[in-house]
Each structure stands twice: as C-alpha cells, then as structure tokens.
Amino acid sequence: MSTNNTINLKNRPKGRPSLDDFDITTSEIPEVQEGELLLGAKYVSVDPYLRGRMSDAPSYVPPFELNKPIKSGVVAEVLESKNDAFAKGEFVVGELAWKEQQVVKGDGLMKVDPDQAALSAYLGVLGMTGLTAYHGLMEIGRPVKGETLIVSGAAGAVGSIVGQIGKTLGMQVVGIAGSDEKVEMLKSQFGFDEVINYKTTENMTEAIAEACPNGVDVYFDNVGGEISDAVLFNINKFSRTINCGAISVYNNTEAPKSMSVQPFLVKKSSLMQGFIVTDYADKNKEAIQQLSEWLQQEKLHYTETIKEGFKQIPQAFLDLFEGKNKGKMIVKL
Amino acid sequence: MSTNNTINLKNRPKGRPSLDDFDITTSEIPEVQEGELLLGAKYVSVDPYLRGRMSDAPSYVPPFELNKPIKSGVVAEVLESKNDAFAKGEFVVGELAWKEQQVVKGDGLMKVDPDQAALSAYLGVLGMTGLTAYHGLMEIGRPVKGETLIVSGAAGAVGSIVGQIGKTLGMQVVGIAGSDEKVEMLKSQFGFDEVINYKTTENMTEAIAEACPNGVDVYFDNVGGEISDAVLFNINKFSRTINCGAISVYNNTEAPKSMSVQPFLVKKSSLMQGFIVTDYADKNKEAIQQLSEWLQQEKLHYTETIKEGFKQIPQAFLDLFEGKNKGKMIVKL
C-alpha cells in the first residue's frame, strides 16, 4: 500500500462544524529516511477542544491550517523504523495527523505497553483524558474527604473519571448528564451518588440543591452556560470551580452571555480557574502512576464509544456536540 | 447630653437605596455598667458592602435587622469606662452602631494611636480598606515585579491603595475610573502609569489593550459588569482576577447577565477568586505592619472624602453609588 488517506480541514467552521468542513485526500507515503519511522494509526481520539483549533482565533494552542491534516491523540504501531529509539512492532501514543499511515521523526511520542492496559486506554484514562481529570481535580479542586463534588458533562470522557476519583477520595459525588441512560450508567457503573438529567429537569437550581444538601464544595465544569449558572446558586463558602471546558458555548459565534459570576464569587469567597492539561505536565508521571494503581485496584472504570473506520473520524467528532458519546470517543482503524 | 441620635434601617431597599430607607430616632443613653464603656463616635465609615447587608438574601455577613441601627466601621473616643482594658480619653476602632454615643462591652475593639496616624486612617489605609487591598492583591493576585496590574474602581478607597501597592512592588499599573478628575488624581497623586475614563471611552476592550501592551496579568476587580467583560479580552495566560466587589451590579434586582467568563478562563488557564477581608484575618498583623511601613516611607498616599455631621451618614452612603467619593468615604462627627 503506497497511497494513503488523510483528513484535512477544508473550511473554518462557523458555529457548529459540519461534514463539509472536512475533506479526505489521498497521497503517496514518503520513503522512511534515516532517523524516521513509519506509523500505522490504530486508535484516533476525537475531542471537543479540537473545535477551538479549527477557528483562527487566538487560543491556548495554535489553530489548524486550512487544507492541512487535523491532528489529535493517536495510538499507532511502528510499521518500519530507521530510528534507534523505536522498533518495528512497538506501539506509541502522541499527537499525530489524521492519516492512515505517516512518516515522523519520533519527537514527542511515548511508547505504550499493550499488555499493561488496552491500547485505547492510552487515549483515555491513562492519557490526556485521565490526566485532565486528575490534574484539574487535584490541583484546582483541592478535594477534601466528605466534601460534595458536582460534575457537569459527567458522562463524558473526563467527567466520568473525575467522579470516580472523587468517590475514591471519599467525596459525595453528584453528576449532571443528558439522558436517562447516562444517568443509569453513572450510578451503576461509576458509583456516582446522585445524577441529574438536565434535559428532563425543569428547575436545575432546585434539583442541584436537593442532590447536594450540604451545598457544593467542588464543581468540575465541562459545559459552562446555564447549567453552570444553576450550580452557582448552590456553591459553598470557599468552594472551587474547575473550568475544564465550556462545550455548551464553544459553537457560539458571538461572545455568549451568562449570569454574572462575580457577585457569587465575592459572596462565597469562591474560586474559578481554567486550565489545560499541559499546565501540569511536570506532574504527569505521578498522575499516571496513581491512575494506573487505581485502575488495577478496580477503583476506576472507563467507558469508550468506539467507531470503526478511518473515514468515520469527522462524524465521530461531530457526534461529540450532540452528546452521542458515552465516555471517551475513539475511532478504531 | 442624655439623648442621642441613631440611624436605623427603615426599609430593605429594592434596587438602589434612597433616603427613605433610613430613619433617625432619638433615645436615652443607658448607664454604664461594670465591664462596659461609653463611646462617642468620631469617624464613621460608609462602604458599598453595606448595601448587601440591607437585603435579607443570604450573604457572607448576616443582614441588618429592620428598625435597628446600621453598623459599620467607627473610630470612637472612650468617654467613660468601667472596663479595665480601656481608659477614658483613649481611641478605639471597631464595628459599631450608627449612634452618636453608645455603651458597649468592648469585645472586638482595637485601640488606635492618634499620634501614629490620623484617626480616620484606621478606617481606611490602616483599617478594613487597606487590609482588603493588601490581602486581595497579595493572596489572590500573587503579584510579580514587571507584570501588569489593572484596577477597576481605581479611584475608590480600595482601588487607589491597590494601585499604589502594585507600583511599590514594581508592577505596571493601569486604573479604570469614571471622571477626568479621578484620572488626573490617580496619575499625579497615586502614580498610576495609565488610567482609562470608562465614561468617555467608546471601546473599552481596545482602550485596555492599548494601556496594557503586554496584556493583563492581575486584575483587581471592584466593579464587575461590562468593564470586567472588556478586561477578559485582554487577560494573559495564568492571569489572576481578584473579585473584591461588583458595585456595578449590586443594585440589580435580578441576577445580572454578563459575558460568559468560563471560555476565557479555560483558554487562558486563568483564575478568578472572590474574598472578604476577614478570610485572611490571621494575616492582619503582618499586613498592618507592612502598610504602616509603606505609609511612613511615603510609598502609600490616601485620599478621603469627608462629610461632616452625624445626619449626613445616609447621604454619604448613597453618594458611593454615584461615584461621588474620591478614596475612602468617611463621615466626621
């Protein structure tokens, strides 16, 4: 096989992305030069944050270029190697192009062991997703046993891990999710104490008050918008909000409006802080060690939504914005 | 003199308070019992946060009771004492009722020295105002030499001290204020590098970008609302916003709307945190020591707007919401 499919960014989406914003091209695979290796993609991660990189507004990561491949977390097999650090047949994870096969130099790749955990886990609970949950909760949330943790986007990849870490640390854990099926899953599989279905709940402020009789000490926020407004009415003195994402407003073309948070923060001596997982890269090693330990102790469980086939990547990405995933959304090749 | 004026809360204000919400009653002064002392008010502090205590919504401090005296920071002279801890002729500061004279037990009073600083300073730069500026900036803002600090409500009591502390620490300091006179005062008397008059500026976002060419690292926010929205567009990665007050929305009867802050905090790994000065009471001693030292070194200057006469207290309070004060607003008896 010497030709190869690539998914490129065709247009910068206005508002919600659509399939028209992507196109698939074929190209030759270049020869592997000294120091390089040829990778075959096995698992491709699609994540809400990629939406930001499709716009050219300044953000925490540079935007994707038009008519160039999109990149995300990928687990790949080494198909051929002229780089001493990697051998044929090994598996690696890293930020790679949406290509079936690609030749790279090997910078920034981490080897992963398929015997220690499923390969797809390195895109999730032992990868960026798990690290995002862990660093956000530990560094900003500063969780305390007995406190109440509420998680929005609880059935998402990060949210479900956050809730389980909270339970492992002895917190009261409440989730917010968008279907009865997700509610059931979070309670039965992931051990959440209470879960609120925001789509069928009329008064979220009251529902949160009921689910959190001692108020909210830590809020892990993946969504922003009206759900976060409702949480604000229930925060405790010295509470901490982790701003991990704001998926509910990512597709707004104008700066979205919400309730003013400032008066709540003043009244409650409360903290809100955003982050990106790379802010805490110096603590990744201890985090992965802790997450692996919990995984082996079966304190952490994870769910994946796996789509099959390279050409399904754009649709899998679009499905994120309709909440069609349970846990980490991954495309398997 | 055995009768005595008191200012009571007559109505809980709806929206902006008015003179009708207060009334003045006279009463006898009770006899001083063993352990008590009689105080004569000398300087009374009026502060925006008192507005919150006039509502009965839950807040960080309990609400004032209807038809009972309002309380705030007061410097008083000991007129008579049957308490060994205080002698006639000494001066004290504490939270006291809006009464010309009152009999108290002495709990929570701190003695002040009229030879070390003007008595009114103990309501301002060496009192709650100075401590609010100091603790907020140091504990939440974590200022670093060379960084850019922007202060809203810069000509207010807290704001003008915050800016001067920033300059003392080697920061680039930009203020936001509401009149050309205040702009001039902040530059010439308080050493602000740049000051923006928000009332005459059409595009605040651009004006802030111009005044802060390196972006905003620390934002000391006294106002909330649209001014804070404009600052958000200019925050740097890892910036810190101190939510000290939100005077622009205190009189709203409905939960006010502003731009969603969450996407900005996520993009910039940025922090916002509210506080009240008592959160850091364990650090008051070192703070007063540092503030006194800077005052003696003439690194801190302060402005007061002093009204005369007990019955002027309600009007002085109302004037705060029209920005009629420069620096700390105080009523002298």
From TrEMBL, chains A, B:
Q: Please report a single Pfam family linked to this protein.
A: ADH_N_2
**Gene Ontology molecular function, alphabetical:** oxidoreductase activity, acting on the CH-CH group of donors, NAD or NADP as acceptor
Gene3D superfamilies, from UniProt?
Medium-chain alcohol dehydrogenases, catalytic domain, NAD(P)-binding Rossmann-like Domain
Q: Which UniProt keywords apply?
A: Oxidoreductase
Q: Where are the transmembrane segments?
A: none
Q: Where is the Enoyl reductase (ER) domain?
A: 17-331
Q: Does this entry carry the keyword Secreted?
A: no
SMART domains, alphabetized: PKS_ER (SM00829)
Q: Which domain of life is it from?
A: Bacteria
Q: What is this protein called?
A: Alcohol dehydrogenase zinc-binding domain protein
